[in-house]
Amino acid sequence: MLRAMVRDLRAHRGRLAMTLAAIVLGVAFVVSTWVMSDSTARGVGDTDLRSDVDVVVRSPERGAVLAPADLDRLAELPGVTDADGVLAGRAALVGADGKLVPGPHDRAGTGWDDTGRFALTEGHAPGGPDEVAVHTDTGLSTGDTARVVLGDGREVRATVVGTFTFRTLGLERAPTLAWDADTALALFGRYDRIELTGHDIDVPAEDGWRVDTGAALNDEVRADAEASARSTKESLLAFAAVALLVGGFVIANTFTMLVTQRVRQFALLRAVGATRRQVRRAVLGEAAVLGIAGATIGTALGVGLGLGAVALSQDDATFAVSPLAILAGYAVGVGVTVVAAYGSARRAAAVAPVAALRTDALVPPRRRIRVGLGIALLLAGTAMVAATAGADLDTTSRVVGLAGGVVAWLGVLVLAPELAGVLRPVVRVLGRFGGPAVRLGGRNAVRDPRRTAATSSALLVGLALVCAFATLGETMVSMFGSTVRATVPESTTVLRSASGDEPLATDVLDRVRDTPGVTEAAADRYGFVEVTHAGVTSGTTVSAIEPDAFGTVLNQEVTVGTGDLDAGFVVGSNQAAMLGVGLGDEVTLDFGEETVTRPIVGLHTTTEAQPLFYLDVAAAPEWYRERVTSVYATGPDPAAARAALDAAFADRPDVRVFDREGLIEADMGEFEAVLAVMYAMFGAAVVIAVFGVVNTLALSVLERRREVGVLRAVGASRRLVRRTVRLESLVICGWGGIAGIMVGVLFGAIMQHVMLGRPLFDITVPYQVIGVSLAGMVGVGVLAAVWPARRAAHTDVLSAIASE
């Protein structure tokens, strides 16, 4: 049996190549993902960390609060041979456009020292208040003038006299700018930390300082790098899993076609004594051989793609190819291929020996079991979604709803051959108005619904994912816009940091209040904290804001209770449902060093784009009150107030002034960029699905070689044959595209319902994505048919119609 299978593989090299290509694509995607994440982790782990610091002392409070007197005290401790104070403070570099360069600025400014942290690459160290050294990543060179905005809103200018690279300690972020020690102390006032070198250093515990060893901080960096790489790998492998799912459909469909074409061969083997088990093992052995070959090629390709992607994305790339990446490639290649071929192996083993006497032998279908399973999955999934279709879902309901959508999706895939039957009346109608090519192509497409469904299922999965996330994305964009319009009055002017998510300078709110024409102003301090109730802790978002902001600069609708922040929290209704709390219940917000426990006094209509908790700013920790993320302002004449604010902050590179629509446009830009990346990742699955169409059509042409020969013998031209295959491809791709779009939009509706807490069908349909998808399916249908149509048109008539 093994020799027979090997000879068959050698005899059909084209069929072998098409099957291998399907395996190679899926394996390459997984291995390249693994290599990229391993290389990223290795790159962070290989960072030149400082190892010359024994103990690091930091204040228990946030910010740089250690004074020179603290440095002197610590330097006198027993065992300390050297003590260095590290100055750090907020310092934002102004770009060529007059606004802050995006990026973290919280500790971007520091003081120059000779501890080995700095390595000059050009120029010399700063020596006065008018000189500064900059990190090589800033793009500035010696002789340039650096404009810098400090944490209190002051702007300073200094000449760049040197550029440097930086050796970090622990999770320290490399600074952007460095002044001499005296200037930095005058600018920032206190030390961020004090580094001690020596032996057996014992820092007094009663001072309340946070004390860590340098080795422990560096171990924290390595652990964080591994966690980040693991998270990246998991995210990318999710996309790889989708590609594998689609590739599994392609491989399974390929083996189904191969088994169908070799029914007589299997029957002859059964007739000469082969058992069902031998036939099944032979087909699985063939799949394993193809899986090993495809995994070998795919692993090599994946390693090359992964290393190439790392080299393009990182200046100082670190390459890593772990044994796990290689093992994953082979596990995927062999495992997916064998699993995909198992159904075909069972059908091959079920061929009766008498089928060897028939020229049109077919594998017996198992329709009843498939239909029953598909209906059960579809009904169960629909019931799960319907049961969780209400508002204010708790965590369990959200999980059940999303799982129901997945189960219903699986039901659609299982029932795909039956659903493909709807093509028959469509083909009949088209046949009445079309020519011979339309009738023949349509009939070929619907002749074997199982083959049509298997071919189109790969497209269905790929397009469904694209349309699902497009529906979720468009709904989020629409939701955010409508939420901002409902919450922020048109008369309100909004001020944000020009650097992105960084807090505004501490003087912005006071300056807004002092602007002529502004009579109402409030600040939003938005952040992520932990909320605890009844011993259960989870993450949430909170906005600390002035109580009089509601009804003046903000229109936050409170549906239950009161919006009086003086009395307690105002919480989103969805968040309250997830926590299992209501009016009067006390919950605790954990801000790190401090906690705030208050009762819930009101529930507001909310979405995930809004803060889930509103808190009176007076009750927030002092450090949190200074983290102003947005300022809202208005006056008796809103237009005049807006013009006055534009003028007041025209010279401030750290502040951007928005009207309501401008705020929506700015916030949605980054989100839409993330969606574009997701579409590109899912596009890999669509590419694999397109290959599956080409593969199936080519095998279908081989399967119908005699039929094509007879067609040519009775007068069909090569052009007619090409058009017939092309129209068959269009029907298959069109069916897969339309079904994928419908499933994707419905699944997107479920996703936005469980993730955003909106009504199930309160969605924004992504018409642009749908239009591009439909047009793409037409293009795919035409391109996928090029080679199979040419092969069919050049079929040798005499050899095709000859009896086997």
UniProtKB/TrEMBL annotation:
Superkingdom in the source lineage: Bacteria
Transmembrane segments: 236-260, 287-312, 324-343, 371-390, 402-423, 453-472, 677-702, 727-750, 770-789
Keyword Cell division: no
Residue span(s) of domain ABC3 transporter permease C-terminal: 238-349, 681-796
Record has Transmembrane as a keyword: yes
Membrane topology reported for the UniProt record: Multi-pass membrane protein
Subcellular location: Cell membrane
Swiss-Prot/TrEMBL keywords: Cell membrane, Membrane, Transmembrane, Transmembrane helix
Pfam families (UniProt xref): FtsX
Entry similarity comment: Belongs to the ABC-4 integral membrane protein family.
Protein's name in the database: ABC transporter permease
